[in-house]
Amino acid sequence: MLRVFWCVLLRDLTLALRRRTDVLTTLFFFIIVVSLFPLGVGTERQVLQILGPGVVWVAALLASMLALERLFAADYEDGTLEQMVLTAQPLSLLVLAKITAHWLLTGLPLVLIAPLVGMQYHLSNDAIVTMMAALLLGTPVLSLIGAIGAALTLGLRGGGILLSLLILPLYIPVLVYGAGAVTASGIDMADTRPYLALLGAFLVAALTFAPLASSAALKISIE
Amino acid sequence: MASNWFRFAAPASFYPIAGRLIPVFWILTGVCLLVGLYWGFFQTPDQLGGSNAQKEYYRIIFIHVPSAWMSMWLYVVMVGWAAIGLVFNTRLSFMMANAIAPTGAIFTFLALWTGAFWGRPSWGTYWDWDPRLTTELILFFMYIGYIALHSAIDDTRRADRAAALLAIVGLVMVPLIFWSVNCPDPNQCAALHQRSDLTQIEGNILFSMLAVTFGFWMYSFATVLMRLRSIILTREADNTWVRDLLVGGHRA
Q: In this protein, which residues make up the domain named Cytochrome c assembly protein (chain B) (predicted)?
């Protein structure tokens, strides 16, 4: 079982690294969106410190969603996905491997680039550490929930727009608590642990149910 | 008789029944709404209004609360039909879920809309990012997402199943809305909505609220069945019974 997981994971990673622009596009999209806000709302230090957490999270949602369309699309077009559905292996495990690959390529870079963004928004060191922790817990949830939407909209006309309509409402809890954690870290008295604990709970719940739901969605889309 | 129930799972046999039920539900809708609104407007004057004329606007409650209830109930009912459809593969239950979605979306919109008009005099703002308002808005998006996904897929079978799965995933929102006001620590999340408790509502107000709610249920039945009938006709257009129906005039 674990071997199948590794196999699919490594395959997806190798494929993605052969076409590095796809991965970099998402990352640069994130950086550009984050950089646009100070130009739009003004560059005062205090304003940026207030806006920072929210902007980072909204940009992370959009960046994660941008890459979701490709999660199953390539495999769907060349027929690999059908073969995966037909194998004796549990489909949800294969889907989980693909989601993991997706997160490693789009979510993890966002976590790693977070200090740079924190600098742009004059966030304190504490806030940056919290932001990295929150992104580390939150971005996998985005990939997991997003996979359901990606599977449902597979091969549809205007699938990308539809995907955002379906998935963004479900992202809201992650956005609220993810940005909440960073905001709370700026206040001396506040405790960020409840926020992180809730994000962890989202992650556990999403890990349990999302692969099942997305494999069911894939079966619907393929049959 | 017992096995006869399953006969109505076939669109062809459900279609005439629905046609006969619709007028009944419309009449009940009219009666309940008239009674509920009359009672609400004229028989509950002294609770919050009376000498304090500012508070008369609380009567929005008779539309606002029932429509908010309906928005959540209809989502649960829709998910129920969607789940039945996924499990038993019955065509009619998908059609039912499909027919419920627009009515549910309308009630969600009505709850948000009346809430805005209530919020203006009582909170001083049309909109606030109160947890309940926000979650209700997300519910509205879920309805829109369901309808959008269904209409984006051409293959009816895939559309039914995909939208059903999406609806089931969105079910997580309903408990969130329901308990969103029960905030354990008011310092952590300030909710403008008060905690609600049916046992603490004055009898007359409760009566008219429940009467309007019942009226809304009847309205939902009527509109859902009407929509269901047209969905059945569209999807079964190639079947002989539909052609017979058209040839024989609009009997049913």
A: 22-183
Given A152, A158, A169, which is nearest B165 (Cβ)? A152
- Which of A79-88, B172-181, B229-238 shows the lowest per-residue confidence on average (mean pLDDT)? B172-181
A111–chain B nearest CA distance, Å? 27
Q: Is the pLDDT of residue B53 over 70?
A: no
CB–CB of B162 and A216 under 8 A? no
Position B4 in a domain: no
For residue A172, the number of C-alpha atoms closer than 13 Å in the C-beta half-sphere is 18
Q: Are A218 and A151 in contact (CB under 8 A)?
A: yes
> Does residue B183 belong to any structural domain of this protein?
yes
pLDDT at residue B252 tops 50: no
By the CB < 8 Å criterion, does B149 face chain A?
Answer: yes
Find out whether A50 and A171 touch, Cβ atoms under 8 Å: no
> Which residues span the domain enclosing B64?
20-250
Contacts of A177 in chain B (CB under 8 A): none
| Chain B residue whose CA is closest to A194 | B188
Q: In A, which residues are within 8 Å of B148 by CB distance?
A: 162, 165-166
pLDDT at position B187: 52
- A222–chain B Cβ distance below 8 A for any pair: no
Please state, in angstroms and rounded to a whole number, the distance separating the CA atoms of residues A148 and A156: 14
What are the tens digits of pLDDT across the range B81-120? Answer: 999 999 988 888 999 999 999 999 999 999 999 988 888 8
Give B166's contacts in chain A (Cβ within 8 Å). 148-149, 152, 166
Q: For residue B11, is it within any domain?
A: no
Residue B62 neighbours by CB under 8 Å, 6+ apart: B36, B37, B40, B41, B208, B209, B212
Residue A151 to chain B, least CA–CA distance (Å): 9
Domain coordinates of chain A in residue numbers?
A: 1-222
pLDDT score of B192 more than 70: no
Instruction: Give the whole-number percent of chain A exceeding pLDDT 70.
Output: 99
Please check whether residue B24 lies inside any domain of the structure: yes
Mean pLDDT of A145-170: 87
CATH number of the structural domain spanning residue B178: 1.20.120
Instruction: Flag whether pLDDT at B182 surpasses 70.
Output: no
C-alpha angle with apex A18: A13 to A20, nearest 5 degrees?
90
> Residue B215 and residue A13: Cα distance in Å, rounded?
57
Shortest alpha-carbon distance between residue A115 and chain B (Å):
27
CA distance A199 to A205: 10
Percent of chain B whose predicted confidence (pLDDT) is above 70 = 82
